[in-house]
From TrEMBL:
Lineage: superkingdom: Bacteria
Residue intervals passing through the bilayer: 6-24
Alphabetical keyword list: Membrane, Transmembrane, Transmembrane helix
InterPro entries reported in the protein's UniProt record: DUF2897 (IPR021550)
The protein's name: DUF2897 family protein
Amino acid sequence: MNIWWVVGIIVLVLGFIIGNILLLQQTAKTKFPKVSKDNNASYDKDED
């Protein structure tokens, strides 16, 4: 196997792993809105 194939595969795998780690860090910082009856009417439609 050519050495450039091995280097290319290693670079692709490391890029994939680092990209996923950065995406997880970005997602962990996002704030999600709280669920209430005003913004989700079908959440508890049996109550009331």
